UniProtKB/TrEMBL annotation:
One term of GO molecular function: ligand-gated monoatomic ion channel activity
Domain spans labelled Ionotropic glutamate receptor L-glutamate and glycine-binding: 410-469
Record: residues binding L-glutamate: 480, 485, 650, 734
Family: Belongs to the glutamate-gated ion channel (TC 1.A.10.1) family.
Domain of life per record: Eukaryota
Protein name listed in UniProt: Ionotropic glutamate receptor C-terminal domain-containing protein
Transmembrane segments: 524-543, 599-622, 819-843
Membrane topology annotation: Multi-pass membrane protein
Length: 911
């Protein structure tokens, strides 16, 4: 009885060829009477009825069948045939798909039944095992296995890649309309290794449905077929691993003879010749049993109607041994049959053949080069035999992950000169992780510039949306770990410590002046001091000139004093000036009235100097203490300065949710207060003058909305710079971003302490194996202190940082901008002194050149006087010591000559 299923026409052709071969080769000693039964793969009832009808008919005609040849592939038709043969005890040779455990009706067979219920795996069931060998050799971590109706993979979903850490999807090839989207969906599942099992026509359709970008270096395509023709497809640029079966070299003559003589030319050849060899071998095995007399003479048969579930005939036919001992040569390849041992016949018997592994290069739709890579010998666990190791490694898909990011310095910054077009802290971090995990990546900026927030409809945007849609493998940047994000994506361990929200404002510009020390006192005060200075100097000169006790009016009295000072106008001005300095004014006046004036000036100067010193220190300190906002509370209590976070940022989410929570708490309290079911005592406990729930964040959120949320950090910085003292602007954002902006911009400052602190981590798809790999890598970098070095590099030693002048604070000294005028005073004084020196030199040389006349002294005997000699030139003050007449007793004092005397001989002193 030959049982086949619909659409398996190749088996029908092969069996007919085998019967024809038997007829044309009488030396085989075979005469076959074949009964045909065909059933649908999904219809067991009709198939069972057909089997029972044919079998009952043969029994009624006293022609019981010796063999049931089963070429059903899988499904209920295959299980129906096996159930039928098992129940009625009919010797069976099956070519169904599956290993022993997959043949559900033939599980736990007794040793007797194992002797006549045989299954041989067809080539289409063995060929998929090469995928396992390729994945093991190339260490592939993800795979999509597509197959058409020439392969059956239902039973291989779990067994094919069992105990191999490879994420994989096994699915049938979609129809023409959905094939492109099928490949796109598989790619979105982070799969870049594709295996196609099918006819060359199906393979061609799949390859032509894929986008050109799917043939780049981060993808690998492996096509496997039962046919022996060459691969062709219309793709632009691709290199594909192509596997096809090869016949046994020792059987090539026989294969050619069967093809030409018996016209067995259908494709795939390997399957057609398998059915041919299996049929011929099974028939010869039955003939050998019959000829040897091993067939039971009292063979018991029952019909389907007689079977009650317990009366299966107990046959002792050893079909397995007879099948093994057949010496008829095979056509395509020999049968691999376990002989003895614990390995069972069913699920381990197959036709041996080799798969030729080639690398096919296709350019503009034409195959331009085919290179042999090795072979694979059909087996359940045989490795591939590699002939060109370097070439086969080039066919592996490079591990290239898709990274989406948001530009935010210093974590991510655009840099056309960088290898990936970006630079920053996160890029350096990812490169170090890539060195450990060994992968490559391509990085793109997310279109909306958001890390990811959920709207009222539960829909996400930004990087989170990309990860959910499987369009990204990694989300990189200063991305905060948030509870709602962790419900849809996964985060690695934090790579950056807790980061909070902080405030950035414009740095107040403290006005500086080189002559700021002069602004300590008002102008009228300086004028009054100047007036007091001149008045006191003039008064001191008056007192010294008219006081009889002054030095210039009482020289004889003070002639022996070491300190002699005549307080003329010049000396008075100098005395009052130097009295205001630590040097002191020098010798004080001799008269008491002058000393009282000096003491009064000293007291005045001491008070002025002390007041000036104290006010100068206070004046320079007040400007440094003028900071309008120092915390979030200060910001919330004022209305002069506008403030807002970035639109769509985690800071915006924080304030929005805090405001919503306050509103909900208020509603809860209000409902409790207005609840009529409460007693009067309970309600009185809820009655308060002040709201028990704060509205701080509600007011702040409303103020933010009115101020307008900036859409980018650049816009926020520009708003800060455009703000004035009358209407300032404060930005609320992540402290790391603000800290970097302060380091690179001298006109910005970070205000207050951080709040709502959250860590930064790398985002991956939910359930992605990258999470554990990245966790191990980050912990290794943390132990090696690599993360601290990166922080130092990008927050302290960055080349783009501006070398800003350190702002004055209470611990700093007075800056040169505020006290530099003192040095200017020195240079001005030195300049005036130089000018004065030149004037003195000029005055002495050109103005004071009058002729000096000597006057001789002689004794006038007639008058008993003296004649004055050595009269000084005009314009010079001439002083003489007292001339005393011994006889008259007169003195000459302070004799001054104002003009030159033309005839000094006539000059006579007057007594």
């Amino acid at each position: 009885v030959f049982v086949n299923e619909v659409d398996n026409n190749l088996a029908n052709v092969a069996v007919e060829v085998a019967l024809n071969y038997v007829k044309k080769n009488p030396q085989l000693g075979l005469s076959v009477d074949m009964m045909y039964v065909e059933g649908n793969r999904t219809d067991s009832k009709d198939l069972l009825q057909a089997l029972c009808s044919k079998y009952g008919q043969s029994l009624s005609e006293n022609r019981p069948p010796h063999l049931l040849l089963d070429t059903t592939l899988t499904g209920v038709s295959s299980e129906t045939v096996k159930s039928f043969s098992l129940a009625l005890g009919i010797p069976t040779v099956s070519a169904s798909f599956g290993q022993e455990g997959d043949l559900r009706q033939w599980r736990d067979l007794t040793p007797t039944k194992r002797g006549y219920l045989l299954q041989v795996m067809p080539p289409a069931d063995m060929i998929p095992q090469v995928i396992r060998s390729i994945i093991i050799y190339m260490n592939i971590t993800n795979a999509a296995i597509l197959y058409d109706n020439t392969f059956v993979m239902d039973h291989k979903y779990k067994a094919l890649l069992q105990n191999i850490p490879t994420r994989h999807v096994i699915t049938t090839i979609a129809d023409d309309r959905d094939r492109a989207s099928q490949i796109e969906k598989l790619r979105n599942l982070d799969i870049n290794n594709f295996f196609i099992l099918g006819s060359l026509a199906s393979i061609k359709q799949v390859l032509e449905s894929a986008k050109n970008e799917y043939f780049e270096r981060n993808f690998a395509w492996h096509v496997i077929t039962q046919e022996q023709k060459d691969l062709s497809c219309n793709v632009e640029n691709a290199t594909i691993m192509f596997l096809r079966p090869m016949s046994d070299s020792s059987s090539k003559d026989r294969l050619g003879s069967i093809r030409t003589t018996y016209n067995l030319k259908q494709e795939p050849q390997i399957t057609g010749f398998f059915y041919f060899d299996l049929t011929l071998r099974a028939l010869i095995a039955i003939k050998n049993i019959l000829q040897s007399g091993s067939w039971p003479s009292n063979m018991k048969y029952i019909t389907c109607e007689d079977y009650d579930g317990t009366n299966t005939p107990n046959h002792t036919i050893d079909l397995k041994t007879a099948f093994i001992e057949v010496t008829e040569p095979t056509t395509f390849g020999p049968f691999e049959i376990p002989k003895g041992g614990k390995m069972q016949f069913n699920g381990n018997t197959y036709m041996k053949f080799d798969m030729d592994i080639n690398a096919v290069s296709i350019r503009s739709g034409a195959s331009v080069n085919t290179r042999s890579l090795g072979t694979w010998e059909a087996s359940l666990n045989a490795p591939i035999n590699v002939a060109n190791e370097a070439e086969i490694k080039n066919l592996t898909a490079d591990v290239v992950y898709r990274v989406y990011t948001v530009v935010q310095a210093p974590f991510i910054m655009r840099d056309p000169t960088a290898p990936k077009g970006f630079k920053g802290y996160c890029i350096d971090l990812l490169n170090k992780i890539a060195e450990i995990v060994e992968f490559d990546y391509e990085i793109r900026e997310v279109e909306d510039g958001k890390f990811g927030n959920m709207n009222e409809n539960g829909e996400w945007n930004g990087i989170v949306r990309k990860l959910i849609d499987k369009q990204a493998d990694i989300g990189l940047g200063s991305m905060s770990v948030m509870a709602e994000r962790e419900t849809v994506i996964d985060f690695t361990v934090p790579y950056y410590d807790l980061v909070g929200i902080s405030i950035m404002m414009q740095l107040p510009s403290t006005p500086s002046s080189l002559f700021k020390f002069l602004t300590v006192l008002e102008t009228n005060v300086w004028l009054c001091i100047l007036a007091a200075y001149f008045f006191t100097s003039f008064l001191m000169w008056i007192f010294d000139r008219y006081s009889p006790y002054s030095y210039q009016n009482n020289r004889e009295k003070y002639k022996n004093d070491d300190e002699k000072r005549e307080f003329n106008i010049k000396e008075c001005l100098w005395f009052c000036m130097t009295s205001l300095t630590p040097q002191g004014g020098g010798e004080a006046p001799k008269n008491l009235s002058g000393r009282l004036v000096a003491a009064t000036w000293w007291l005045f100067g001491f008070i002025i100097i002390a007041s000036y010193t104290a006010n100068l220190a206070a004046f320079l300190t007040v400007s440094r203490l003028d900071t309008p906002v120092e915390s979030l509370d200060d910001l919330s209590k004022q209305y002069k300065i506008l403030y807002a976070p970035l639109n769509g940022s985690s800071a915006m989410t924080y304030f929005q949710r805090m405001a919503d929570i306050e509103a909900k708490f208020y509603e809860i309290w209000k409902e409790m207060s207005l609840n009529d079911s409460l007693t009067a005592v309970e309600r009185s406990k809820l009655a308060v003058w002040d709201y028990p729930v704060s509205d701080k964040y509600t007011k702040m959120w409303q103020a933010m909305l009115e101020a307008g949320l900036p859409n980018s950090l650049e816009e926020a910085v520009q708003r800060i710079r455009n703000s004035t003292s009358a209407s300032g602007f404060a930005f609320l954002g992540d402290a790391t971003d603000i800290r970097y902006q302060v380091l690179t911009n001298c006109d910005l400052q970070m205000v207050g302490e951080e709040f709502s602190r959250k860590p930064y981590a790398i985002a991956v798809q939910q359930g992605s194996p990258l999470k554990d790999q990245f966790n191990n890598a980050i912990l290794m970098l943390l132990n090696r202190r690599e993360l601290e070095k990166l922080k130092e590099q990008w927050w302290k030693n960055d080349d783009v940082q501006n070398k800003c002048e350190k702002p004055d604070d209470q611990s700093d000294g007075i800056s040169i901008q505020n006290i530099g005028g003192v040095f200017i005073v020195i240079f001005v004084g030195i300049g005036m002194a130089c000018i004065t020196l030149l004037f003195e030199f000029w005055y002495y040389k050109y103005r004071n050149n009058s002729k000096v006349i000597d006057v001789a002294e002689s004794t006038d005997q007639q008058h008993g006087g003296t004649i004055v000699k050595n009269v000084r030139p005009a314009g010079k003050l001439m002083k003489q010591d007292s001339l005393k007449d011994s006889t008259k007793g007169h003195n000459y004092q302070n004799l001054r000559t104002r003009t030159l005397m033309p005839n000094l001989s006539k000059f006579q002193p007057r007594f």
